[in-house]
Write a structure and sequence with these properties.
Length: about 300
């Protein structure tokens, strides 16, 4: 058990998960085999998984003053997250995601609602971050919130979280992200998101070099079933995926990020071991349904890696 504290700042929401016969393309249809309503959001998922690893965790987020907001608060009350600060937005709708999955575990995610975009930090929130061992946020948090976190002397892990065509509607610009780069201790994104930010079709190794040139000191570019590339300074390491029986890929990226925070930021292990640990967390998370409902414990990951 560790007492390292991590504060996740960003979205908490309801995932409306539809298990479909197939993921439909344009002008195609599908049938709903099952529906589940779950607690989700990148910040919530990362904080939950880190709490299950034994870390003291906090969440700072925002929901609207509506029924979904009440539901989120009720679900957070029974979560393993130690310290929850959720501001209430008067008017608007609590953020939500429509998660569409097929029998092979692949999924599509569609977001909506305003509350995640209306988050602002109080002085007490900033003090909480300043007292932590690490902070996590993503591009789904408002830009001014990320800029505030970057100014605090606490290691910051940042998940690009989506393609720039989506993120610009949330206030993020390439110039702003370039300016944040020196204050981001670990940058995490999937290959599609990185390419959209860099405006390139380069491979993951070249993308790591371009991120380093823009001022990011260390980070990871995930490539789905093709593995992950981690960089730190001039070093780049390719980590292959672990073969598992996939049930649901929802939350795999968040599980990977939580694993990186645990191993690379808090435990300070080397780049290759950190990548293997985080990849194992993501793989095990894919063997269960949901973003974090069946997330592995430290013992699970260590046994898997043995």
């Amino acid at each position: 058990m560790t007492d390292s504290s991590v504060v996740a700042v960003g979205n908490t929401l309801i995932d409306h998960t539809y298990h479909l016969t197939n993921l439909p393309g344009p002008d195609e249809g599908a049938f709903v085999r099952n529906y589940e309503r779950r607690l989700g959001g990148v910040a919530t998922n990362v904080a939950t998984i880190l709490a299950r690893f034994g870390h003291e965790t906090g969440l700072v987020s925002c929901v609207a003053d509506d029924e979904d907001g009440d539901d989120v608060l009720d679900r957070l009350d029974s979560s393993p997250i130690d310290h929850v600060t959720v501001h209430r937005l008067s008017g608007g709708r609590t953020s939500y995601c429509l998660v569409l999955t097929d029998p092979e575990g692949q999924r599509a995610i569609i977001g909506g609602g305003e509350s995640a975009l209306e988050l602002s930090l109080t002085e007490a929130d900033v003090e909480t971050v300043a007292d932590a061992n690490a902070t996590f946020t993503s591009a789904y948090a408002p830009l001014d919130v990320v800029e505030t976190l970057a100014a605090v002397d606490t290691p910051l892990v940042y998940d690009l979280a989506g393609e720039f065509t989506d993120l610009t509607d949330r206030g993020l610009t390439r110039a702003a992200l370039d300016g944040l780069a020196p204050d981001i201790d670990r940058f995490v994104a999937n290959l599609t998101s990185v390419r959209s930010y860099l405006r390139t079709d380069a491979g993951p190794r070249d993308c790591c070099a371009q991120l380093r040139a823009r001022g990011f000191d260390a980070g990871a570019v995930t490539c789905g079933s093709d593995g992950v590339y981690l960089f730190e300074g001039d070093a780049v390491r390719e980590i292959p995926v672990f073969e598992v029986s996939v049930t649901d890929t929802t939350g795999a990226g968040d599980a990977f990020t939580a694993g990186l925070i645990h191993a690379w930021v808090l435990d300070g292990v080397g780049i290759e071991d950190a990548g293997r640990f985080a990849s194992a967390v993501a793989a095990l998370n894919c063997t269960e349904t949901g973003a974090h409902s069946g997330s592995p414990t430290l013992a699970d990951v260590e046994s898997f890696l043995d």
